[in-house]
């Protein structure tokens, strides 16, 4: 039965399968309803007190109607049990492809714990396998509810994370490491395959039982618990400078070629390893990088442990006839002879924002002028690169 129900008489569904509504989502719904009216009714059931209605599905339409100042909304009145209410809410949202993987995990767990449904029964209710239900609920073991309650930003990130990404990150035991990996996955839009590659490169650091603490730090200041952020920053500087001038001999020493180095390039669109990665880096330096000026923006350094760190940055290339931007992640590890790059992931980036913060010192004219002067005089050596870097960043 369809009726006009006062919005003041409708309360939220305590079994609602959706737990996250963005303001933009409600604004778009409100705009549509203001232009075209309410295209389909929401579904409600009588509350247990019998005085008001409980929403089964259609929360966004109700929020939008309230935003528009409506007093009533068209609703389908139904007699439903708690179990039927939660099931119809799930089916409605899954049919619309509205639920994130994390929301599915929360509602499947509620069916399991509050309604006594086993994974097989939940799967049969909505057309998924028992293993799929288990995988979704497994997302909730990535961080416990108390940890997420203390980290609201991380909680919002969980709504963007896929179940497959969560299952991959679950292999890392430490919560802080997991949090850093969630951020990296979303910021760099990593596929599951490339996330697996990063974990493979850092496996020994994540599993090192001697490291009792994990660290997260942005490139502000010089050192953090014995790990030199400035040194890592200079390493990133050298990577682009030596590539620009085609100095392969000095460039090769900052990569862990022959030691597990991998590269994903937006140009190649594939994961390169070993000799293939080394060859691609050489070709890029000799044939592409030398033809462009470049600038690093928004450098961020996250210290994963005393011997491993992650740098993220945006890099802009330009010459008289072309310009393009890339953004990426660089994983570095500390060896006996200094920091080495063990993995890179670069993807295309386009933005009109000209006020990006934290520009890297290598984009500074003074630094580039000193390097070019040394090159012209034939005095550009590994030692001189470090000396000039030190003089500018001191």
Text of the CATH class of the largest domain: Alpha Beta
Query: Tally the helices: what do you get?
Result: 17
CATH topology of the largest domain: Nuclear Transport Factor 2, Chain: A
Uncertain regions spanning at least 5 consecutive residues: 207-223, 352-368, 380-394
Strand percentage, roughly? 15-25%
Number of beta-strand segments: 13
> Helix amount, in percent?
40-55%
Overall pLDDT confidence: 76
Biggest sheet architecture:
6 strands, mixed
Q: How do the strands of the widest beta sheet line up side by side?
A: 9-8-13-12-11-10
Order of helices and strands: EEHEEHEHHHHHHHHHHEEHHEEHEEEEHH
Query: What gap, in angstroms, lies between the N and C termini?
Result: 75 Å
- Cα-based radius of gyration, to the nearest Å: 27 Å
Counting helices, strands and paired strands, the structural category is alpha+beta
User: How many structurally independent domains?
Assistant: 3
Layout: helices, strands, pairs:
Blueprint: E1 2-6, E2 10-11, H1 23-36, E3 42-46, E4 53-57, H2 59-67, E5 72-78, H3 82-95, H4 101-114, H5 119-126, H6 130-138, H7 145-149, H8 152-158, H9 163-169, H10 175-187, H11 192-201, H12 203-206, E6 223-224, E7 227-228, H13 229-245, H14 248-252, E8 262-265, E9 270-273, H15 274-287, E10 293-305, E11 308-318, E12 323-335, E13 338-349, H16 365-376, H17 382-393
Summary tags:
394 residues, six-stranded mixed sheet, five-stranded mixed sheet, 3 domains, Conserved hypothetical protein from pyrococcus furiosus pfu- 392566-001, ParB domain, alpha+beta, Nuclear Transport Factor 2, Chain: A, disordered C terminus, single chain, 44% helix
